[in-house]
Amino acid sequence: MHKLTLESIAELAGVSRSTVSRVVNNQAGVSETVRDRVMAVIEHTGYQPNSVARSLATQRTGMIGLVIPRQMQTLFVDPYFPRLIQGISAASNQQGSTLALFLLHNEDEENRIYPQLLNRGTLDGVLFITNSTEDPFVQRLLNSGMPFVTIGRDCEETPTNFVDVDNVEGAVTAVSHLVRLGYERIATITGPLASLAAQNRLDGYRQALVSRGHSLDANLIMEGDFTEAGGYYAMQQLLAHEPEAVFVASDAMALGAMRAVREVGWTVPDDMAVVSFDDLPQAALSDPPLTTIRQPIKRLGMLAVETLLDVIANGVMPTRRILLPTELVIRSSCGADSFV
Amino acid sequence: MHKLTLESIAELAGVSRSTVSRVVNNQAGVSETVRDRVMAVIEHTGYQPNSVARSLATQRTGMIGLVIPRQMQTLFVDPYFPRLIQGISAASNQQGSTLALFLLHNEDEENRIYPQLLNRGTLDGVLFITNSTEDPFVQRLLNSGMPFVTIGRDCEETPTNFVDVDNVEGAVTAVSHLVRLGYERIATITGPLASLAAQNRLDGYRQALVSRGHSLDANLIMEGDFTEAGGYYAMQQLLAHEPEAVFVASDAMALGAMRAVREVGWTVPDDMAVVSFDDLPQAALSDPPLTTIRQPIKRLGMLAVETLLDVIANGVMPTRRILLPTELVIRSSCGADSFV
DNA sequence: GTGAAAGCGCTAACAG
DNA sequence: CTGTTAGCGCTTTCAC
Questions:
Q1: What is the structure's pLDDT at B229?
Q2: How far is residue A333's CA from residue A331's CA, in Å, rounded to a whole number?
Q3: Which residue among A48, A166, B243, B328 is the one 20 to 30 A from A121 at the CA level?
Q4: Which residues of B touch A55 (CB under 8 A)?
């Protein structure tokens, strides 16, 4: 089997290279008969255009990069990453793009790989996962003119395209639910406040309380780190201040928090109502099952790709800033049952 | 800033395109002075060669594809995938390759994407994750002449390059440990036997018992599905046959199995010793902590990449068939403590 | 040591 | 409607 090129197909079909090119790219201006003849040859030979050559000619590769800097490697501990990447991959398959993955493990790799991503003409665009509002790579992306969309970064100052879950709204929903159920002393265990998601959820907590006429008590706010152990420890601190209910900024922390509650002989939700955030698979299986805010992670990944392709095709303006709504999933940890 | 090409650098440095190319590619046959001069211009302008053009000329893209067919989407439920992909990514960064990710979600996508992977000249090689001995894609890879390495597939008939954890040896180690501790009635909960890893671990269980002069009892072999619930259910069946110890083919199933043991009022390891497989983070945190076989997953990913690059550079012969050793991690679920 | 020239396989004006 | 002709940016003989 000889190497198949446009040229050889053209020869076999008795037409010129351009005609074959037109047929392959489904362009108008080819007669039915010729088109059919060429198609037949293509089918028969199993010809596939060389995408590298095409990229060189069109200055487009059809490839998008997913960049995950080293701070974000924490993604890998929970099921966030797998679901996100499934969404991203599904959308990029569907749109005919190919996905290049760049996990940066250390600063050296970042220094070596970032310039390559930006200058070598390999990528049509970049998806960048971050939750810091001041990652230096964003500035470099901006300077390079490379189309990009960030996932999980909403920054007021430099208007960049981003998609994220609406963490503020989710937290407001969670806390409002507790208020509605009649709890008075509502505490929160936050994520690490260096993370934007953690900040946003804390903001939501505050907004919900204030808008419902509750006062804020600094003793009822405890910083965690999104891990089970962190939630456990934070709850131990919190217990001294006797909250009736707590909004925990992640399911993993909620599991730890409930462990701490159990250990002092209290029960959830009777002595302490819990609402958390994420809706991991474990959330439904815990004892008691968690009332939590479900994040549409896979959807978020798909939307990120669609937004990026839109930016690539239609330019950066206007800036796309997309927040995805969350959903309150009511189970028993909040004590809603007793009110029904 | 004008577009930077070899041509423009050549002009700035007052030399020809070929000379710049030689400098960029670190080839011999350029005088010190000229080389330095060219280097200076490159540094100063920040020139990066266009990799698409280079690929077209060299017929190499420096890109490897990681293909995950739909059966393997189960990878995403446990921490296997994140760790594997971290290893793959680390090695491919280190070797200067770029990694393209193909998650195939359904048959349509497989049909559409497989031909593209094989013919379009985009990929230098493919890493294929599977645990079926008869995936049709392997045959297509073979026919296409595309260099590839399989992860998790050891098939005697068609000799293909693969890397995997040595599941047989791991299981032998686990079961031998139980035998050594003096247990007589040793059961096993297997993975789904459609999976090669599950088969291998069952083989190891049998080998260990037979080689130690124990007899095999079909009542002590129960098929699970690698999930917590599956392990729970399998153990419930097993309890009727009163085993003293059990080798469970995954940590997740072991957690379920221990739950079933607890529910009938038995304790681990006094009434039932448990050894499992994987060494997930949870294995150390369970009650009691699991004695288990640790798999070097990240290492496996790195090795897969190195093997693939070796195949790409040096041809498919001889066939590389690499099995990575596992490690027995002794904690308390096997009752070893009481013997120390 | 250095440069000229011929591709790599495709797209995209521009003619006819 | 179809073919001719330049490129896309780089590598790689082959002369000098």
A1: 86
A2: 6
A3: A48
A4: 52
pLDDT tens across A295-312, in order? 999 999 999 999 999 999
User: Which residues 6+ apart lie within 8 Å of B162 measured at CB?
Assistant: B149, B150, B151, B152, B153, B154, B155, B320, B321, B322
**CB contact (8 A) between residue A89 and residue B102:** yes
C-beta of residue A138 within 8 angstroms of C-beta of residue A130: yes
Q: Give me B7's structure tokens.
A: 């041509």
Of B61, B82, B116, the CB nearest to A48: B116
Q: Rounded CA gap, A235 and A248, in Å?
A: 10
Q: What span, in angstroms and rounded, lies between the C-alpha atoms of B154 and B177? A: 26
Phi/psi region, residue A15 (left: phi>0; alpha: psi -120 to 50; beta: rest), is beta
Residue nearest to nucleotide C8 (CA to C1'): B57
pLDDT at B190: 96
Q: Which stretch of DSSP H or E encloses residue B11? A: helix B6-13
Strand partners, A151: A129, A163
B37 CB below 7 A from strand D atoms: no
Nucleotides on strand C lying under 7 Å from protein C-beta: 1-5, 7-13
Residue with token string 């100063």: B44
Could you give the CA distance from residue B117 to residue B65 in angstroms, rounded to a whole number?
Answer: 8
pLDDT reported for residue B205: 97
**Residue with smallest Cα–C1' gap to C9:** A53
List beta partners, residue A245.
A186, A273
Q: Write out pLDDT tens, residues B97-123.
A: 999 999 999 899 998 999 889 877 899
Radius of gyration of chain A (CA): 26
* Separation CA B103–CA A67 (nearest Å): 17
d(CA A271, CA A185): 12
Angle at B86 between CA B82 and CA B91, to 5 degrees: 155
CB within 8 Å: B52 and A50? no
pLDDT over 50 (residue A340): no
Bridge partners, residue A327, by sequence = A294
| Helix ranges restricted to H, A183-296 | 196-211, 228-239, 251-263, 281-285
- Give the containing element (helix H, strand E) for B57: helix B51-58
Between B4, B86, B100, which is nearest A98 by CB? Answer: B100
Going along chain B from its start, the domains and CATH numbers come out as 6-58 (1.10.260.40), 63-165+297-325 (3.40.50.2300), 167-295 (3.40.50.2300)
Of A55 and A157, more confident: A55
Tokens of A259: 């462990």
Question: What's the one-letter identity of residue B49?
Answer: P
pTM score, whole prediction: 0.89
Q: What single letter denotes the amino acid at residue A320?
A: R
Please say if the pLDDT value at position B53 is more than 90: yes
Cβ count within 10 A of residue B295? 25
DSSP for B136-150, written as a single string: HHHHHHHHHT--EEE
Q: Please, are residues A85 and A68 in contact by the beta-carbon 8 Å criterion?
A: no
Quote the percentage of chain A above a pLDDT of 70. Answer: 96
**DSSP one-letter string for A170-188:** HHHHHHHHHHHTT-SSEEE
